[in-house]
Amino acid sequence: MSTPTPEVYEQGKGMDAHNKVMREVRSRNDASYDPREPTRVWLDEDNTPDGVYQSLTIILNTGGCRWARAGGCTMCGYVAESVDGGSVAHEDLMAQIQYCLDHEDEEADEKAGLIKIYTSGSFLDEREVGAETRRAIAETFADRDRIVVESLPDFVDREKVAEFVDAGLETDIAVGLETATDRVRRDCVNKYFDFSDFEDAAAQAQAAGGGVKAYLLMKPPFLTESEAIEDMQRSVRKCADVEGCHTVSMNPCNVQRYTMVEELFHDQGYRPPWLWSVCEVLESTADEDVIVVSDPVGHGSDRGPHNCGECDDRAQRAIKDFDLRQDPSVFEQVTCDCEATWDAVVEREASYSLPLAR
Ligand code: SF4
Ligand SMILES: [Zn+2]
Fold this sequence. Notes:
12 helices, iron-sulfur, metal ion binding, 4Fe-4S, 16% strand, binds zinc ion, S-adenosyl-L-methionine, binds iron/sulfur cluster, metal-binding, eight-stranded mixed sheet
């Protein structure tokens, strides 16, 4: 890639231009949502530094991310699912938590040891979740073992993290780092912070007795398949070197509604990554001293990461297997003729010919 000049960040260009396009795309959405219901809730199992846990994952509807309101990231459709008005009252947020507890009661035999709370924004941003609500949530889940809450790095501070640690929870902050490469984060994802901000957030979490979990995004728009693979390999390694970062969740980009990625996809300018690329990154970074997991959303579909259609389920199974066992040999057991096409794409796709194959 070429080196950017200062002018690309001027008004009307670069980030400013990205934000303008995204505000226009998002304004086409007119759905509205109930503030007393979470965006989503589900039960699953997850790998943590203390082993595999039953987990309850909650997507709280908090009014959405500040950055998304300004335009936001090129692939993020979450703000389209947020309630109107930009903030949700304490009582309503607690009603959402109760809804999730009821769901758990109905669906699971026992309480999950791990709670994961995402907000499609930042749980630690007090404009989304006020201090009163944050403390009430820490208390509600004090009988569990671990908690993960999502936040952009700016809002991570030692005191807030300590509220969860002091409630007796192993606490992790999930940060949507997307990539360790600042240039890719700015120009392809349109995210405003730097890798050094992530390092600072990890230091704050660690000072409180917590840790961080880095969320990486494989193949934002404008990268070739091979650039996307290299970007992720480099990013996993850099994250593994950050003190306090014990887990990386490396997730392939999918095409969400009301996003710039969707515009490109409709104009045949974007293809989500191959599942083979996900396998390649997991396999080649398995020697790093960090847990690396991946949860490809919409696998096998045009809008999600996919191979040829024949082998997608098998590749996905190998990835999920790797998530729990961290054993790279799981990838030796899955093969398909389409690997030859993927090889050719990795070798030949160039930025002027994206995507080479759909
Ligand atoms: S990816 Fe995160 S920071 Fe970016 S717009 Fe979406 S919620 Fe906001
Ligand atoms: Zn195949």
